[in-house]
Amino acid sequence: MLEKAACDGVVTAFDRADGLKPCPIGADGACCKMCAMGPCRLPKKKGGDEAGRRGVCGATPETVAARNFVRMIAAGTAAHSDHGRGVAEVFLSAAKGEAPGYGIKDEKKLLQVAMDFGVQIGDRPVNDIALDVAEIALSQFSTDDSLRFISRAPLKRQELWRKTGVVPRGIDREIVECMHRTHMGVDQDYQNLLMQGARTALADGWGGSMVATELQDIMFGTPYPILGRVNLGVLDPEQVNIVVHGHEPLLSEMLVWASRDPELLEKARANGAKGINMAGICCTANEILMRHGIPLAGNILQQELAIITGVVDAMIVDVQCIMQSLPTVAQCFHTKVITTSPKAKMRGAIHVEFNEHDAVASAKAIVSQAIEAFTQRKGEAMVPAEQVDLVAGFSHETINYLLGGLFRASYRPLNDNIINGRIRGIAGVVGCNNPRVPHDEVHVAMVKELIKNDVIVLQTGCSAMACAKAGLLVPDAASQFAGSGLAEVCETVGIPPVIHMGSCVDNSRILMAATAVVKEGGLGDDISDLPAAGAAPEWMSEKAISIGQYFVASGVYTVFGVTWPTLGSDELTKFLFEGMEDRFKGKWAFEPDPIEGAKLMIAHIDLKRKALGIDKARERVLFDMAMRRELA
Ligand code: SF4
Ligand code: SF4
Fold first, then answer.
1. Are 119 and 138 contacting, i.e. CB atoms less than 8 angstroms apart?
2. Is 570 exposed, middle or buried (0-12, 13-18, 19+ CB in 10 A)?
3. Measured between alpha carbons, how far is 488 from 454 in angstroms, rounded to an integer?
4. CA-CA distance, 106 to 88, in Å (whole number)?
5. What 3-state class would DSSP assign to 354?
6. In the predicted structure, residue 155 carries a pLDDT above the cut 90
7. Distance from the alpha carbon of residue 389 to the mean position of ligand 2, in angstroms
8. How many CB atoms lie under 10 A from the CB of residue 630?
9. Model pLDDT for residues 86-118, shown as the tens digit of each residue
10. What is the CA 96 to chain-centroid distance, rounded?
């Protein structure tokens, strides 16, 4: 595709990354532009002379780097939480009967969330319960009390958060406090700043992101394992191709419905197409894959490439991870780039504002635009043949069901197999792609190394798509790539060794899965006791930093690759890589080499196994049929 891009005269993110070297001072977090006395650049000095490294106001490198880091957390939390707020607002409208097209698909989950929120259930009508749930969900953005979902965490973790003073209050308030404290001349103590960073990140993982995940499940259905396909080969030259891109499923759910509308299908056929083919990019794609099996055209770095195929008739974008280059790339083709959110417009794109009170009409209007574009195709089309099967849709609830069955839904088999050593540990490998490293390679190498060593991998976001393209998200991958212990378990249960749990906000599902393992018993009484680790080996987004910080503050050892944004201050970096562990029993690490990163995670997992006294249970036994049945 890059060769076709060059022939077509299109510049992609890969070209721009080659031509634009990162500023080394900014990359290390050593540049401050919080006021007009600066910007102040504080590069490390040869010979280690720290005395002269001060901003005009006297700010030290650790204060500057910590302020930058905390602002990244605030922005990441804002993005996830605004997504959650949007979902909660539509949920409220739906409960009031003011959003035709939306309703309650998963009543069981509604009742679960209602119980967590302390909403009275009894024999009240479902819509009344939903109304109370919606109001409490919206109040989470402004409450002065602690966030409700905090009570889902293991008790010991909640105690630790109370002791360290990081239990989050209203999500908006924590973000605002980050911005206040990082303003010129306010919080100058990097450790104090990072504690606010932790509190804000927890408001993301156990707040805004969890609100988004839970309410989406109630409205659109909790995902269950579903077969999908991934890579640019899912585009079909003979059909109207609509690619949805961004993060929020509010509109894309309706677009799925509209793409199957008989009237619009007839219109497509009347215009010479064989049908309407929907596909997705980034996390909007993950959302509709998990609930409808809609194929994935690719992850973030494939957004431009999808248009370059010449067969995308409309790319519908909502918010986050959308490259401003799209309208320019689309100029070389017939593709309509359509923005839909008032929060995210682009020069050169068509804006069709999505109205949740008339969602069906919004979706139909957009599909009609795509059909019109199909008639205007120009230039040479080239759709690569590559596409790969994957299984997605492993919510925390379906893992529970798959392992335990309908009548004894439980994480017991997972815990037992961790204790007996067939599964060495659990890793959450998530996050973005970054054109500073070869596309997807870092994710795939790390995940292969982990499963080879019997570590089961939970995934979300672009990372899940990278590994899906490498064929790791199908049950057959167990016998091909996993160690013998993990392969035995996967083959018995019929699951892949790499589990697709959804989009970036669905990292909250990983928190819930980790909590379920703790609550099942036998592996300690806190997330930090588990033989588990996290990673975002190709991260680039501020959301990734927020996710990493809430993993760390929840007790997880978390490894990032590519680059690390505080290297400008040794003292701050040491605190993140070592000091955080004293407070949260979780810590950060940085390792750009994916195999070395996996080794760090495995070493941490082994350390936890030792602390639990289960390190000796890993001798290999050949299994006969009866023993295999016992595993299930
Ligand atoms: S806040 Fe201080 S370090 Fe930052 S730009 Fe202003 S003077 Fe420079
Ligand atoms: S994983 Fe990163 S790049 Fe991919 S959609 Fe999420 S935030 Fe964007």
1. no
2. middle
3. 10
4. 15
5. coil
6. yes
7. 21
8. 11
9. 999 999 999 999 999 899 999 999 999 999 999
10. 30
d(CA 252, CA 233): 21
Reference 517, options 506, 507, 529, 505; nearest CA is 529
Beta-bridged to residue 229, according to DSSP, are 389
Q: What is the pTM of this model?
A: 0.94
Q: In this structure, which amino acid lies at residue 359?
A: A
Query: 616 C-alpha vs ligand 1 centroid, how far in Å?
Result: 54
Q: Give the Cα separation of 585 and 554 in Å (integer).
A: 8
For 185, other C-beta atoms within 10 Å of its C-beta total: 10
Torsion angle in degrees (nearest 10) through CA of 246, 249, 254, 257: 100
Give me the phi and psi of 421, to 5 degrees please.
Answer: 90, 0
Query: Chain centroid to CA 494: how far?
Result: 25
What interhelical angle do 249-259 and 61-95 show, nearest 10?
A: 50
pLDDT digits (tens, 9 = 90+) for 371-399: 999 999 987 899 999 999 999 999 888 88
Ligand 2 center–CA 301 separation, angstroms: 10
At residue 409, the pLDDT reads 74
Strands (E), 409-530: 425-429, 455-459, 498-500
Mean pLDDT of 403-428: 87
> Ligand 2 pocket: which residues have CB below 6 Å?
282-283, 299-300, 321, 431-432, 461-462, 504, 541, 543
Pocket lining: 55 vs ligand 1, CB cutoff 6 Å: yes
Q: Can you tell me which atom of ligand 1 is nearest the CA of 42?
A: 3
> How do the residues of the chain divide into helix, strand and coil, expressed in percent and rounded to 5?
50, 10, 35
409 or 315: which leads in pLDDT: 315
| Residues pairing with 336 in the sheet | 314
User: Which helix (H) or strand (E) covers residue 450, if one does?
Assistant: helix 441-452
Question: Greatest CA separation found in the chain?
Answer: 74
Q: What is the DSSP string of 580-626?
A: HHHHHS--EEE-SSHHHHHHHHHHHHHHHHHHHT-TTTT------HH
Distance in angstroms between the alpha carbons of the first and the last residue of the chain = 44
**Rounded to whole angstroms, how far apart are CA atoms 236 and 605?**
44
Q: Where do the DSSP E strands lie in 405-556?
A: 425-429, 455-459, 498-500, 532-536
Hey, what amino acid is at 289? L
Nearest C-alpha to atom 5 of ligand 1 is from which residue?
A: 38
In angstroms, what is the span from residue 58 Cα to ligand 2's centroid?
36
349-379 burial code (b ≥16 CB/10 A, e <16) = bbebebebeebeebbbebbbbbbebbeebee
Ligand that comes closest to the CA of residue 282: 2
The per-residue pLDDT for 621 is 56
Helix (H) or strand (E) holding 13: helix 13-19
Measuring CA to CA, how many Å separate 273 from each of 257, 311, 493?
Answer: 18, 12, 42
Q: What number is the average pLDDT over the span 54-76?
A: 97
The four Cα atoms 406, 407, 412, 413 give a dihedral, to 10 degrees, of -60
Query: Using alpha carbons only, what angle is made at residue 607 by residues 606 and 609, rounded to the nearest 5 degrees?
Result: 60
Look up tokens 């003011």; give the residue.
98
Helical (H) or strand (E) element with 106: none
Name the closest ligand to CA 537: 2
Using omega within 30 degrees of 0 as the cis cutoff, is the peptide bond preceding 39 cis?
yes
- Per DSSP, what are the bridge partners of residue 388? 230
Ligand 1 centroid distance, CA of 37 (Å): 6
